[in-house]
Amino acid sequence: MRYAVLGTGIVGRTLAGKLASLGHDVVIGTRDPGATLARTEPDGMGNPPFAQWHADHAQVRLETFEEAAAFGETVVNTTAGERSIDALQAAGASRLSGKVLIDVANPLDFSAGRPTLDPVRTDSLGERIQRAFPDAKVVKTLNTMNCFVMVEPARVAGEHTVFVSGDDTGAKKAVTALLGSFGWPEASVIDLGDITTARGVEMLLPIWLHLYGTLGHGDFNFHIQGARSGG
Questions:
Q1: Residue of 25, 129, 39 whose CA lies nearest to 9
Q2: Rounded to two decimals, what is the model's pTM?
Q3: Residue environment code for 17-51, b if the CB has 16+ CB neighbours within 10 A, otherwise e
Q4: What are the residues whose beta carbons fall under 8 Å from the beta carbon of 188, sequence distance 6 or more?
Q5: Rounded to whole angstroms, how far apart are CA atoms 211 and 221?
Q6: Which residues contact 204 (CB under 8 A, 6 or more apart)?
Q7: Which of 54, 137, 157, 203 could link 171 by a cystine bridge, Cβ 3.0 to 4.6 Å?
Q8: C-beta separation of 149 from 156 below 8 A
């Protein structure tokens, strides 16, 4: 398939690289490809500049948001949550129409000096994206874990869980199949329901951040275990 990954940060790179390794035709989108390639300093998280990663992943083409969205049969939003709507508007509603739009972003707000969520409780980034692009098939998933766990669930020992939220049943089935190709067993995928359930998974981020700070690494995830049969 043809995938467009919007966002050149560590999450976008990791997902684009995984998709390419599985044989998909992948482009990665940014607002200004020239500026992205010209950066020589590590990003705010200490990750190497995009050009260094791209040199090792030349099969993943770098395009504008608009060009990437036009190319992709499925679009993956990995942009910073506070800029996701703007990035998707740059991609163009007509280029997203009818396509599965996988949203892995979190609506982090750093304006108070520490990360908080905006929106929260009564709305979600997933819902905002669906409202802004009603002809796209938005599926929220993979936002509750480190990007390396997203594409290599075996990094976490034992069973653990990935959630999907969205209004379109067919789109969620397609995303579940994609998760399977990443190594997620079907039994580990929980379909929470429509896109309003994205509120819950986005609100898991604060506890994830606290756990990251306590454990000192990101190789962990949530495991939802139900009652044993006959219990």
A1: 39
A2: 0.95
A3: bbbbeeebbbbbbbbebeebeeeeeeeeeeeebbe
A4: 153, 159, 160, 161, 162
A5: 10
A6: 144, 222
A7: 137
A8: yes
86-99 in b/e form (b: 16+ CB < 10 A) is: ebbebbeeebbeeb
Strand partners, 28: 5, 62
Phi, psi dihedral angles at 87 (to 5 degrees): -65, -40
Buried b (16+ CB within 10 A) or exposed e, 178-214: bbeebebeeebbebbeebbbbbbbbeebeebeeeeee
pLDDT in tens, 157-203: 999 999 999 999 999 999 999 999 999 999 999 999 999 999 999 99
Pairing of strands 162-166, 189-193: parallel
Nearest residue to 195 (alpha-carbon basis) of 153, 114, 133, 146? 133
CA–CA distance, 197 with 220 (Å, rounded to integer): 22
- Cite the DSSP H helix spans in the chain: 10-21, 33-38, 50-55, 65-71, 84-91, 93-96, 125-132, 147-151, 169-182, 198-202, 205-215
What are 50-102's pLDDT values in tens digits?
999 999 999 999 999 999 999 999 999 999 999 999 999 999 999 999 999 99
Cα 212 to Cα 45, 194, 206, distances in angstroms: 14, 29, 10
